[in-house]
Design a protein that fits this description.
single chain, 420 residues, alpha+beta, Elongation Factor Tu (Ef-tu), domain 3, Helix Hairpins, 3 domains, four-stranded antiparallel sheet, 23% strand
């Protein structure tokens, strides 16, 4: 009986086991507080082509008119250079009219060019003749100047001889009057005196004639130069006018030729490999204006990137080179945010670049490229436009710190290291 009473004072095995389990749970909970936890920030986005030139765009109408024929089907792959569609102009005679206008302008251009060539040749001839004539005038002037120089020298000599003859004549005349010299000597001296005087007068006249000739030639030279310069100036003005007209005609030819080439190129070809997703003008009877979209075209993306939308509050935490886990919509997956190694159906990515400024309403975008060590599904499976969710991996902290941070609404720890 005493043993049974003592047994009743002992704790129930259930209580003992509960105490042990509670203690174990507390120990496990405390231990878990020190386990590492990978901080992350998440965002949503979609797959786009990495190169901007390989993203979707509208194929526009090169001319105004009607769609003559489509050579493609929606969502059928086309190669670069394949014919997409062909257009016809509303005015079927428009091209003929343009060609006629170009022909007329070219004819006028040729006429002006011919006139310009004639003017240039004429100017060249006038300039050549002017040089030759000036050389002739200069030679004549030099010859007259040399003649004048010679005449002036002769004049001095004759004047000296005349002065000697005059003195001799006066001396003999006095002697003749006194009866000392004979009449013959007197007449000889007189004739010599008269002769020398005539020669002096003649040389003076010759000098005056040559001087007047020199003045006349100089005036003729000046007049000739002015006439030729005036003619050259007129030709120069005509040449400048013709050149300006040629430039105007060339601009008109270029402008009209561009218009013609644009209208001639009514066939539109694929600029890249890709898919014509939508035919926007599905009725060939619809009038399409130049520049209107006709086909929505998606080039084949050689390299893909996830365009991830990031809240501006998380933007400072995102760095180029950080690792990320990507979950594509439609892929069964499991991902524990804090433990990246616990994953299924998600793929690795790397932050390639981040927008420098907010793109819209305070939203930033980050570009996540696939990790070469863990490639994404092929483009046949993972198509451009597929939506996705991504967790960008930040710093590793303890679970206890993460619980405290979450409870107190503190931001994650910013990654300082550069992973590039």
């Amino acid at each position: 009986m005493e043993l049974k009473a003592l047994e009743k004072t002992n704790l129930s095995p259930i209580v003992v086991n509960a105490k042990r389990i509670t203690t174990l749970l507390v120990i496990m909970f405390v231990a878990m507080m020190f386990l590492p936890w990978q901080q992350t920030t998440k965002g949503v986005g979609k797959i786009i082509a990495y190169e901007p030139t390989h993203r979707e765009h509208n194929v526009i109408a090169p001319i105004s008119g009607f769609i003559k024929k489509y050579y493609i089907e929606e969502n059928r792959f086309v190669k670069k250079g394949e014919l997409l569609f062909e257009m016809v102009d509303l005015d079927k005679e428009y091209l003929v009219k343009l060609e006629s206008v170009i022909g007329d302008i070219k004819a006028q251009h040729e006429n002006i060019q011919s006139t310009l060539n004639i003017s240039l040749a004429r100017k060249k001839n006038i300039e050549a003749n002017l040089r030759i004539s000036l050389e002739i005038y200069d030679k004549e002037i030099i010859q007259i100047q040399e003649t004048l120089k010679r005449f002036n020298g002769k004049k001095v000599s004759l004047q000296n001889s005349y002065e000697v003859s005059d003195a001799n004549y006066k001396r003999i005349n006095l002697l003749y009057l006194d009866g000392i010299e004979s009449k013959r000597s007197y007449e000889v001296a007189k004739n010599e005196y008269i002769k020398e005087g005539v020669e002096v007068e003649n040389i003076i006249i010759d000098i005056e004639i040559k001087s007047k000739s020199l003045e006349i030639i100089k005036k003729e030279k000046e007049r000739y130069i002015k006439e030729q310069e005036n003619e050259i100036n007129l030709l120069q003005n005509s040449i400048l006018s013709d050149k300006n007209r040629l430039i105007t005609f060339e601009k008109e030819i270029k402008k009209t030729s561009i218009d013609l080439s644009r209208n001639v190129t009514s066939k539109v070809f694929a600029s890249k490999d890709g898919y014509p997703l939508r035919i926007l003008k599905n009725d060939t009877n619809l009038y399409v204006k130049k520049g209107e979209p006709v086909i929505y075209f998606a080039p084949e993306a050689k390299r893909r990137v996830l365009l991830l939308k990031i809240r501006r509050i998380d933007m400072p935490l995102i760095k180029e080179g950080l690792q990320a886990r990507v979950q594509f919509h439609g892929w069964p997956s499991m991902q524990v945010s804090g433990w990246p190694k616990i994953k299924y159906g998600t793929f690795s990515g790397i932050i390639d670049k981040i927008d420098s400024i907010a793109y819209e309403d305070g939203v930033f975008y980050a570009y996540i490229v696939e990790d070469p060590k863990e490639p994404w599904p092929t483009s046949e499976i993972l198509k451009v436009g597929t939506e996705a969710r991504a967790w960008v991996r930040l710093s590793t902290v303890s679970i206890g710190y993460e619980i405290w941070r979450t409870h107190h609404a503190q931001p994650p720890v910013m990654v300082i290291e550069n992973y590039r």
